[in-house]
Design a protein that fits this description.
Two copies of one chain form a homodimer. Chain A is an alpha+beta fold and 319 residues long. Chain A has two domains: 135 residues, 60s Ribosomal Protein L30, Chain: A; 164 residues, Phosphoribosyl-aminoimidazole Synthetase, Chain A, domain 2 (Alpha-Beta Complex). Chain A contains ten helices and 13 strands. In chain A, the strands form three sheets. In chain A, strands 8-10-7-11-9-12-13 form a seven-stranded mixed sheet. In chain A, strands 3-6-4-5 form a four-stranded mixed sheet. Chain A has a two-stranded antiparallel sheet with strand order 1-2. In chain A, helix 2 packs parallel to helix 3, helix 4 crosses helix 5 and helix 5 packs across helix 8. The N and C termini of chain A lie far apart (40 Å).
Chain lengths: 319, 319
């Protein structure tokens, strides 16, 4: 199987079909429709074997995650995703692996009306880089730098689950609760990007980002971008039943330091919180306030009203 | 140096500054201006150490080439480049290496008014994936599938040089002509994407692609996309003085099978060839006809009016 055949077989018609794609996979570049009244929102994220997922992970999960982490970036901007490009570096062209990868990528792409419009494949160590493009009405994107003092901090869903799921996969965490373990592993392997809620949060949230590197690593970035400090009540972090069952006293550490949840962290003026919460409820998504933005340049963590020093730190490469 | 510092120091202001970038590096995604009357043209290309360039290559060359291969894709579409995203996977964060890489990338970006608007960095085997976006007036992009029977085939510049330059770097080719060797190595290390000529070819060329995998590998793709065959007079391939001096009787093989030239291959109706050649001349670029598109589905190679079987094949991964 050469490169051309590989692309033709697995990637030439992956994801949704879209009328705004004039030319997709197969030429030197894709040709896509531009529009005056929308801003183009674009992001790229790469996942590397042994770094962002355990070596030997299921190909379908790798395909899903490579797109999910990018959809999550657009969700954090309030953007509606449209087009993806895939740069796939892999050691060899195994049909079973490629089938699984394309299935995981394609299912999630179709669920979000995303079309794969280009990319390349290369022989080399397994690395999956996805670039995603989407749209917001002009000027409405949710940025990190829009929060004001007194805005509430809220997170979607529950946090820490994916970190515990990864720890279970790596056997640094163990449990007898097979159902809870399965649930946590699925949270790592098949994260749900909060695209619909990101779109719904436009005009209500003042700032947003997605939680990829853990709350302790990510929140300071949002606060710094908005030139503010923050206060978080650690006892308010939303922990799933499965995480509590499996991680016990470590659940809070996973919620603070575990990455890969791909939930959204939002800042919202108190007067608009009820409206935002009702949009979350309409999507069957919980939205939990965990603190607020404050003047200053540090993030203060409190547990039972006392200062708390997280025992964990967010994920960073090159440290 | 953590990831945040690395991005801030090397990549937060790389390339040109552009007014159509509402938000660049540093958030979850970039926010870019859309326009009704232009089509968005987007491509991604990845280069992997030991695969697309020798291990230990100069970092500045790697930075240059990672962008050049993508600019070349836009050139082949007749698109004016605007925005780039960079996904950089590298074993460790060495300041000297990053300085060189950013310099090579940045110089070429500024020369083409391209702004780096996003990306990510990851620890892992050296892999550089660049995604590029640009524009053409609606409906004017040069596609591979627009050629007609009887259209002339033309290539810009000279071909085979980069392949010979790589062979010199890998010591599978040797020479006493240091000046010629230096010239060929520069052609590999610092290819010149034909962006201005691609733009100039809009409305004249009927189809175009860039030569990245060698004429023998690439031409059949253009012919197939246009549902045609082709005839090439191998004795008309434009060979540089340096290639002839260094490669001797192998020069033709490099021109047929050597990759990485990033010259353009164009189809042009005979009646429009003079106009296209004059636009090339205005850019100080040679444009050489090498054959024509014909009915059928095979590419016929001829030397001194006799059928010729190239001894080389185009580059392909996974073969």
């Amino acid at each position: 199987m050469d490169e051309f055949e590989l692309i033709h077989r697995y990637f030439s018609r992956l994801g949704a079909a879209r009328a705004d794609v004039f030319l997709g996979v197969g030429d030197d570049a894709a040709i896509l429709r531009g529009t005056d009244d929308t801003d183009l929102v674009a992001a790229v994220d790469t996942i590397v074997s042994g770094r962002h997922f355990p070596e030997g992970s299921d190909a379908r999960s790798i395909g899903h995650r490579s797109l999910a982490v990018n959809l999550s970036d657009l969700a954090a901007m309030g953007a509606r995703p449209a087009w993806a490009m895939l740069s796939l570096t892999l050691p060899q062209a195994e049909p079973d692996w490629l089938d699984g990868f394309a299935r995981g990528f394609g299912e999630l792409a179709r669920a979000h009306e995303v079309m794969l419009v280009g990319g390349d494949t290369t022989a080399g160590p397994l690395t999956v880089s996805v670039q995603i493009m989407g749209h917001v009405p002009h000027g409405t994107a949710l940025r990190r730098d829009g929060a004001s003092e007194g805005d509430l901090l809220a997170v979607t869903g529950t946090i820490g689950d994916a970190g515990a799921g990864l720890a279970l996969a790596l056997r640094t965490l163990a449990t007898h609760d097979a159902a809870a373990a399965g649930e946590l592993r699925r949270r790592f392997e098949y994260p749900t990007p909060r695209v619909e809620f990101g779109v719904a949060a436009r005009g209500l949230a003042s700032a947003a980002m997605d939680l990829s590197d853990g709350l302790v690593g990510d929140l300071p970035k949002l606060a710094a971008a908005s030139a503010l400090g923050a206060h978080v009540d650690v006892d308010r972090l939303p922990l799933s039943r499965a995480l509590r069952a499996v991680a016990g006293s470590l659940a809070r550490d996973f919620a603070l330091g575990g990455g890969d949840d791909y939930e959204l962290l939002l800042a919202v003026p108190p007067a608009r919180f009820a409206a935002l919460a009702s949009r979350a409820a309409a999507l069957n998504l919980t939205l939990t306030t965990i603190g607020e933005l404050r003047r200053g340049n540090t993030v203060h963590w409190a547990l039972d009203s006392r200062s708390y020093a997280p025992a964990v730190e967010g994920y960073s490469h090159f440290r």
